[in-house]
Amino acid sequence: MDPVWSLAPLPGLLLTIFGYLCGSIPFGLIITRLAGHGDIRTIGSGNIGTTNVLRTGSKKLAAATLVADAIKGTIPVLIGWRWGAEAAAIAGLAAFLGHVFPVWLRFKGGKGVATFLGVMFGFHWPLGLLFLVLWIAIAYFTRYSSAGGLSATALTALACIASLGGWPALAAIIMGIIVFIAHRENISRLLKGEESKIKLGK
User: Which end of the chain is more exposed for a tag (fewer CB within 10 A), N or C?
Assistant: First the structure.
């Protein structure tokens, strides 16, 4: 299905603002500060996402960050569906951009994987489930969280294109490209065999 724009300007603008503000909530920073770990941006890679939160040594905090960063992508999409596929797509894309480029942190946010996951759940829940299965399986067998996230993003974006098409597919393509750009250093380290592996023990 080719994208056909039918959303009125005002709902589109409001959904864009709402989605961006939801996405820009820095849950990784908030959760780690509340837990007494200080500023997550001074730990590891300095990123506010799930993988860096895991470097605090707390799997519970990392899991909480993952869920929160995903939900802030899902909620705007579900609200957007009330006005159709284009509204859902613009709300989800705005939430994703809010996470990656939050105004509160001088536009230096996370790399977008968890929020991409949440947007996929909002678009069509099997897409979110597919992403989770791929991410966990690939990360488990390779021990590279980045490899799992990147592979799951690419494959789920393709599944979104094939199953939904239209505006959700276009949003998935844009988000996927940004995820890969945000992970360019991780990709370089993966190619060189220098990427840090995740620990699955206690």
Answer: C
Write out pLDDT tens, residues 110-146: 999 999 999 999 999 999 999 999 999 999 999 998 9
Cβ-contact 129, 117 below 8 angstroms: no
Residue with the two structure tokens 């099997």: 126
The whole-angstrom separation of Cα 116 and Cα 119 is 5
Q: Which pLDDT band, with edges at 50, 70 and 90, does 49 fall under? A: confident
Cα dihedral 68, 22, 181, 42 in deg (nearest 10): -60
pLDDT of residue 51: 78
Distance CA 153, CA 199 (A): 22
Three-state SS across 140-199? Answer: HHHCCHHHHHHHHHHHHHHHHHHHCCHHHHHHHHHHHHHHHHHCHHHHHHHHHCCCCCCC
Burial class (CB in 10 A: 0-12, 13-18, 19+), 24: buried
Q: Is the pTM higher than 0.90? A: yes
Q: Which long-range contacts (CB under 8 A, 24 or more apart) does 35-44 make?
A: 35/61, 37/61
